[in-house]
Design goal:
about 150 residues; mainly alpha; about 75% helix
């Protein structure tokens, strides 16, 4: 059980990337988004499953790593990017723009994301990336609206 939680927390090893583990974790989401198409029962079931397992998985990896927010925990990036992709049909240009927006909002935290990031605990580790996902989705839709 613990191995499964740690594997999930690390995006099945993506979180152990020596360079930019958060970006590697976000990349794990792209085939999931492709598979679900960004909408429908499959997408919502996957999002619900990721959200349900994210906090226990993050808790397990935090306990093993002995750090409050170890870089190996990337289930939060997967959950945040999957949330951002909700309602957006898969297409590589959409994926590239949303990926860049999500990474920017995940790195440069502000507002509620910064508040969550300043706290310790697995729920806060996940929550700041969910906030980044909401920001990315709003920015993506704003850009599309402005572009006509």
């Amino acid at each position: 059980m613990r191995r499964g939680l740690r594997a999930t927390a690390t995006g099945f090893g993506a979180g152990y990337s020596p360079v930019a583990p958060g970006t590697a974790g976000t990349l794990v989401c792209l085939p999931l988004w492709y598979w679900t198409g960004g909408w429908g029962a499959a997408h919502f079931l996957l999002l619900a499953a990721v959200l349900l397992v994210s906090i226990p998985a993050a808790r397990e990896e935090i306990a093993v790593a002995g750090r409050p927010d170890p870089p190996s925990v990337v289930i939060d990036e997967i959950a945040g990017m999957l949330l951002a992709a909700t309602g957006i049909p898969w297409e590589w240009r959409h994926a590239l723009l949303l990926f860049l927006l999500f990474r920017a909002f995940d790195v440069f935290k502000f507002g509620p994301a910064a508040w969550f990031d300043a706290r310790e605990g697995p729920a806060y580790v996940v929550a700041d990336d969910l906030a980044a996902g909401v920001y990315a989705a709003a920015a993506y839709r704003g850009i599309l609206w402005l572009a006509g």
